């Protein structure tokens, strides 16, 4: 008997329905078997068959073992198509059950399935069956042992055991006619690999679904026992028409452990996972030993993804537990070569559902140990626990990487390579070499996205390193880069040809996370993608992206960088004629905007999200601001003329990037460029005396497509010293609060190696926020000290009739440590240093100097006082070794260097601070106060704990740092505030001058001691324009005067208008939306306040008249970041 069977609606114009549960029972007559052949399989595809599926079940009960689960789609490509080897099924008995399930996914259905079935008597020439069983059994060739097998026989046995088990095949008899390579008669054993899981360290899902090539057996020698790596095996017995033999008999059984895993990815589970595992005393051992290329170091990462073992502690019969590791079931991960346990997860003590990923150099041993548990007088066959599931992956330590891609569509690949097991610490004594190649018409663009590698004391790379070689040879001439440390190089770099070598080496000592880099094969300058171009005066030259002649679209996966240069004394003018690149859908744009806005704590962020984009840099890409931010459409402008840009320097860089997906038809972009004469900017040599640079933009009514003007200045020194810059006047009106188009930018651009002063940076500045300051409005940068010997100033202004932009600065080489800072809190032009920051010499790049004496004098306006708040403090300790404070209030300020050199408590008093110390005292008529209240007017500190906040008696403070010849610390960083103290109705008001530093600290008066009663503290934090800031309340303790209905501390945001000079205007505090602070905050859980660009933060703290219920007050710190840095 035979017939056909199909899913509901199959063969009609409609797909099957959602929410189906269908059962079919195929029952053959006695002594018959059931044969199935699938003719169509078109279901909703899912890697785990989690949506729509068809199950073929052995027997007549739905709870019986599933022979195969189908969710393939023949119409959706090779990766989803049903493999031919799964289209036929033969039962072991007379019955098969089919279960068809569809989920409720709206609109996601397909045609369904169709099959042919047949009830047949067993055929000696068509023997075999499909089985899914834990019982095991025997298999023998047809006719054995009474007679020889027949010619032209084709038998297929498909054996499957539950998850977590493996199949052990043991031969009892074997005699198959011998032939060369067993090509005539043979028994072939092949494994089915169907592993699927999340890889240990990354977010992708791996899925193996293939049949191993298999091993052919013939002759009369009894084969060795065969143990499978997977839980499914296929035995194919095939004979030809020549001669026969007696045949074979074998026993197969389900076993736990003993398997060797050779695939580069894989999954290991406990027996019968995830239902339960056997309740018996058993030890299952596995070996993970993936095959690697000769000469490649084997490194494997492993992660326990699911863990649920019996937590019952088993005691031996004598009342003692003699087990070596755990008294319950456990899972052990071992480093085989080192013979050490890397992870030991006991059911009784390890309570998590998963474990941290591990990385092991060499083979990994996995041991699963269970004990038999008895509950009362009964014992159960299974433990009611899921067991475990782990995944492993071979981590590449070198190898060949081919970026040729698809030659028909001209699509190249983009891949990433990492240090082995990134981001886990890399192993010792590695030498990994990747040989990267692309097609002959391509070059390779590469970019480091992550870097953390051991570095040398001098910033060099004598221990661990990543090297990049241009070409296919390893030598000093081809080596283009050697890096270590934790600062990845900025931007993309390119090979000169189609080959590249990356080498990663580690020594036997310290290890860190390693590196990750992205490589893309792109067209090179020979094909019109990037290169060096010359701009000439009064001669427009064309610039456009390469076009694919086959599609008339621009190419995918391009990384083109053009470096356009003019003669000295000239600038470059560039204008966009056409620009139409692939832009993200509006819904995705909104998602990107929302995500970035949440990241910076804003309600807006001006970006244009594009798949493909062009960007124009005002000079070298790595060190210059943008003329045109990354965009994919022509910017909208008022006069509807094409955008025109003029550089502030004789070089511009144009960068074009396209992704790997859809490109738009057309030329992508087209631009023109030429050289023009420069009328602003220049280079100025700094000396020991102050010099000036000033600028005032012209006002104009011109209606042309030049909307902006840019000028650039370089300040440098020939003495290899840093520079200091002070602003005397500043006004840069801006139409936006983030300073994208109209701005003043100060950038540290010198080479670190050419700056030899102790205050110079000791490592490259890439990625450091101190490198660039951009601002606009009337908010001048604060007193700036460079980390190199070259500073670049850039002014970008709007040419209009209403306003003009201007600045005036003073600059010189960094002076000695003796200096005076005169403060006037009433200056309205936004450049006053009424509040600011002072540091010890060389901070933060180097320790202060030995055997030195440095004096800093702060002189505020008459009638003002000075308030000092320490953000960092680390000097050589005093003579007394004082125990660290245990109060939670002080836990935030532990030493940041070796505790053998610096004690965790600030020592006070000149008697204790005998070595290095900081003395702070008030001045009267420039002389130290020597009256009887000396102790109130002079404080001495050493050690490495933050001193308390201090307030002066008058408008003058002298800060003296004295050091000896021995230990040097990192120094100090102090925020100072000019304070106007007034009294109103018995309320003492402390009005702090606004502070504009990018980072700093603020506390209540007398912190961490009790604050004074009946006081009102007011302070204003004004971020540099175009920056967003994160304020962290580190500590807050307001005692009993803080309750549910009130808090003595509060803050409020207020916008700043950057177009007019109103930054210094007096605010109306009654109109603010004040937000109360928590009554208590500790350093373990700081409270955050976000300041969006174009806003300032007002802070008020008010104490009552009762000192008995006071706390310690508050301490906060803030840190600001350039919004344009995130935008780029």
If helices are DSSP runs of H or I spanning 4 or more residues, what is the number of helices? 3
**Sheet with most strands:** 9 strands, mixed
Strand content: 35-45%
Full CATH superfamily name of the largest domain:
Spermadhesin, CUB domain
Overall 3D shape: elongated
Q: CATH fold name of the largest domain, please?
A: Jelly Rolls
CATH architecture of the largest domain: Sandwich
> How many structural domains can be distinguished in the coordinates?
8
Percent of residues in helical segments? under 10%
| Structure class | mainly beta
Question: What is the quaternary state of this protein?
Answer: single chain
Radius of gyration: 38 Å
Keywords: Disulfide bond, Repeat
Domain CUB: 1-120, 127-255, 256-395, 397-522, 529-676, 680-814, 817-979
Protein name: Cubilin
Pfam family, one: CUB
Descriptive tags:
single chain, 1128 residues, mainly beta, Jelly Rolls, seven-stranded mixed β-sheet, 3 helices
